[in-house]
Amino acid sequence: MLPLQGLTVVSLEHAIAAPFATRQLADLGARVIKVERSEGDFARQYDTRVRGLSSHFVWCNRSKQSVVLNLKSQEGLEALMRLVDRADVFVQNLAPGAVARMGFDAETLRKSHPRLILCDISGYGNDGPDHGRKAYDLLIQSESGFLSVTGSAGELCKAGCSISDIAAGMYAYSGILAALIERGRTGQGRHIDVSMLEASAEWMGYPLYYSFEGAPPPPRVGASHATIFPYGPFRTATGSIMFGVQNEREWEAFCRIVLERSDLAADLRFCTNACRNDNREILGQIINSVLLKLPRETVLERLERARIANANINDMAELWAHPQFIARDRWRTVESPVGPIPALLPPGQAEARMDAIPAVGEHTDEILREIGMIA
User: Fold this and answer.
1) I need a labelling partner for 142 at 20 to 30 A (CA). Which of 48, 196, 198, 206 fits?
2) Which of 375 and 216 is assigned the larger pLDDT?
3) Are 279 and 286 in contact (CB under 8 A)?
4) What is the mean predicted confidence (pLDDT) over 302-329?
5) Is a pLDDT exceeding 90 seen at residue 375?
6) Cα 127 vs. chain centroid, distance in angstroms?
7) What's the rounded Cα separation, in Å, for the pair 85 and 339?
8) 359 phi and psi, to 5 degrees?
9) Which one of 3.40.50.10540, 1.10.3720.10, 3.50.30.50, 1.10.760.10 gives the CATH number of domain 8-204+345-370?
10) Mean pLDDT, the chain, as a whole number?
11) For residue 151, which of 210, 211, 217, 246 has the smallest C-alpha distance?
């Protein structure tokens, strides 16, 4: 039995943040009923890279049931209310004010459904001067300061994945789990108001505090760490490698074994991380003068001997074939409208619900029959 088996989640969701949160609830065994428009969640149309299906949609929507409702009609609203009547959790990330206009806002529902856990996900939260602003992932990356510390000195750079959506989805997921525990103790539900901006700002904690009381923010230094050095990509004679020196014990070993320059460990310009960071340009030149003469395999061997953490700079093809996933048996197969598709087990879980990705409205008749809307 999975942890959330027997619980029902109803979600008015689209794009990434809410679907990512509810997919994780489904992974743990919850029944997730995804309410869609007749044309479906617009994320279904983002691309066609998975045998005609959207990569975003495939990632976030396995193990769900799709029901199409016309929420501009009285019949559609009645069907939604019957679903909510039977639900443990109600999630929504529609445009600001949309659920209130339908009468499904938290203030209204909590009066008639005291055990219901309600989770709103929005760009800026349900109040404050920006509560009515529409928001998407890249806009919140910008608003939260993420772009200001990401990229190179001359150019801003967004994250390569939907980092603000993911942050909001994770806080919605963990908040719902906490609310389920609380309801088990008190019998009462809870309203959870997740702001993408607040979720992203929490993840900006180190750059935010590094800039405490008007101090300069971390500089944009590409794939290197902004304040720890050496920590980032370095070139060798036959390719690049990523490694990081985190403390003085590692620095001494790096100098002695990797660079074969024991004298550097005692150099006052480099004796602490703060000193190394302040002098990263000249230290980078010294490191490059050694590594660029060595084959990548030699540098890797020395790093391992010195117990310096390192990593390959993998692309997506190499991630698909990563030997750790195979050795740890992390791949599963999920069904979809276009046939079986591989999917990774959720982190930390030995098993999970890994059911099909639904077609638009695939379960409409089944669910409407279940709630007595059709014979």
Assistant:
1) 48
2) 216
3) no
4) 97
5) no
6) 24
7) 34
8) -75, 165
9) 3.40.50.10540
10) 97
11) 217
Q: Write out the two tokens for 28.
A: 């743990």
Q: Is the pLDDT of residue 236 over 90?
A: yes
Rounded to whole angstroms, the Cα distance separating 355 from 95 reads: 29
Q: State residue 182's pLDDT score.
A: 98
pLDDT of residue 336: 98
CATH superfamily ID and name for 231-314: formyl-coa transferase, domain 3 (3.30.1540.10)
68: which residues sit within 8 A by CB, 6+ positions away?
35, 36, 37, 38, 40, 360, 361, 364
Q: What is the mean pLDDT of residues 212-238?
A: 97
Give CA–CA dist 205/220, Å, rounded: 16
Burial class (CB in 10 A: 0-12, 13-18, 19+), 41: buried
Q: pLDDT digits over 60-89, tens only? A: 999 999 999 999 999 999 999 999 999 999
Q: Is 130 a catalytic residue?
A: no
Catalytic residue among 165, 193, 329, 365: 165
- What average pLDDT does the segment 23-35 reach? 98
